[in-house]
Amino acid sequence: MRCRARRGDNHHVTDMPRKTVARTARLASIPLGVAGRTVGGWGKRLAGQSAEQVSAEVAARTAEQLFAVLGQLKGGAMKFGQALSVFEAAIPDELAEPYREALTRLQAAAPPMSAQTMHRVLAQQLGRGWSERFTEFDDTPAAAASIGQVHKAVWRDGRQVAVKVQYPGADEALRSDLRQLQRFSKLFQPFAPGMEIKPLLQELADRMTEELDYRAEAENQRAFAKAFAGDEQMLVPRVVASAPKVTITEWVDGRPLSSVIKDGTPEERNEAGRLLSEFHFSSPARVGLLHSDPHPGNFMITPDGRLCVIDFGAIARLPEGLPEPLGVMTRLAVQGKSAELATLMREEHFIRPGMNLEPEDVLAYLAPFTEPASVEVFHFTRRWMQRQAGRVGDLRGQDFKTGRSLNLPPQYLLIQRVTAGATGILCQLDAEFSMRSIISHWQPGFAEN
């Protein structure tokens, strides 16, 4: 077997920092850094710099620190950063640019572990003769993410494969990070307007064990690959082999969705948005599972125009498909039937027993979210998402009061988070297409019988 590595790479590699004290100190540096820069900003204003100059400088430095800390720590810190990244479309434009760049970098980049460490994990997971399974293996990672990194290799039968190797200490790091991030949750609220940070962190913690077991992820991917085999629009790479901390799948070349977001043509962005929505809404019906890690680093556009989907560590099990009440509620909101909508929401426990809410207020809160389903073609824009975030986040407005009075039943929590994340990507894409036709086809209860 031939192993390839670029010269000089070892000077830049870092293994996952494992000690809880060290990781806590790095995470704590974020709020301390923000406080220090804010104080420094007041000093600069006293020295004559404009408020805009100072604010831009503070935002840029804070964003850079956010990326540096969350990216270097990998683990739960980076997983949280990736989850935040899809909500940057909701941040007002005057504040967003530095954070947009920093959070987007978290979608596909992290410092890699050393080749020596990676070889040790492969030997533990695949046996000391692991290298005999490959005819070629590139020691330089093709991608490095939150809990593992990917290497390109050639399997013994000649197939090009992607070898995902979990970082040593990933489990310990995830637990430590998520505990600490929950302590600092208020600090991160500006990065996800309209989205509650604490439940997001709790949900990430709840799904942590699933994502650490690569065998479970391989089974999820096998199910998706089987359901989408031969599909003209979607591609899920087949699993070649798996172990608890190593997964080997077929290699796929493609254009990262982040690249389409950054410089795709309107046609390319529209089609990417349509494919992403088709995958999101059709998977529960076709597979009985919902891909639950929606950020651009997990999607590519192949040379033949298909959407390639990777990373199946986080999924929601929906054996009956998407819940029908969601479709009915969306339809009633689109039709403006406030009384029927409120009645159904009480039955499904979105409105708690005894809670006094006016049906018109409930409709006013939900109807703007259903705009994409109310017209034949909808244009997802950052401005639209910013309006929704500002509306539900305005402490003085009725929508804020209504939102605080509504309940999100546990069985809908993950579906709502994934839908919100996917919508964030659509707004980053600035995509325009018929969401209504996709929902009509795949969401039970939306189209009237």
From TrEMBL:
The ABC1 atypical kinase-like domain, residue ranges: 105-321
Highest taxon of source: Bacteria
Keywords: ATP-binding, Monooxygenase, Nucleotide-binding, Oxidoreductase, Transferase, Ubiquinone
GO molecular function, one term: transferase activity
Keyword Nucleotide-binding among record annotations: yes
Pfam assignment, any one: ABC1
Family: Belongs to the protein kinase superfamily. ADCK protein kinase family.
Protein name: Ubiquinone biosynthesis monooxygenase UbiB
Protein's organism: Actinokineospora spheciospongiae
